Known about the structure:
The chain is mainly beta. It has one domain (14-163). The protein has helices spanning 22-34, 72-80; strands spanning 11-14, 17-19, 45-55, 58-66, 87-93, 97-99, 114-124, 127-136, 143-149, 156-163. The strands form 2 sheets. A 5-stranded antiparallel beta sheet has the order 1-7-8-9-10, with no helix packed on it. The chain has a 5-stranded antiparallel beta sheet with strand order 2-3-4-5-6, with helices on both faces. Strand 7 (114-124) and strand 8 (127-136) form a beta hairpin.
Amino acid sequence: MIAILAAPQTVNELPLEEIQDEALIERIGRYIKNTNALNLAPDMRILKTRLLRLSPTILFSETFLAPPHEDPAVWEKLLSAGCGVCENVPILVGQTLEDLFKEIRSPTVNVESTCGGIEFAFALSGRTYVVSHAEACESDSFSAALVHDLSGDKPKLVFELSGGL
């Protein structure tokens, strides 16, 4: 839970609308499979990518991944229940793709999968923010709540609450 000390009328929750764009989903998939910046195992399998439009200029994606040795049909069933055991890569989509978990992602390749995703967005004092959460899928070793300011050229992490056992 995140609390904001501000008058209620100054904080506006912003709706996220799920949209479809197959060309953009393919672009994101190529990025995820080819970049080293995410520190993912190279054989992770893409299950699904969701596109969430916040405004005409702000678009997010959430890409759910599964290990290659698992049956994808089993993992895809978990997605409908809010996948708690698969890797999720939330990205701010623009001219470049910006990983919203980069500040908390492991510096070594695929030490532990990161679950979680985008929770909601809000506006406060003329600025737009997105709230996400992350956790280690396989254990209780890590969890985080993140708030990014989206008002600049790139998302800026302005709040992080993290911990674990």
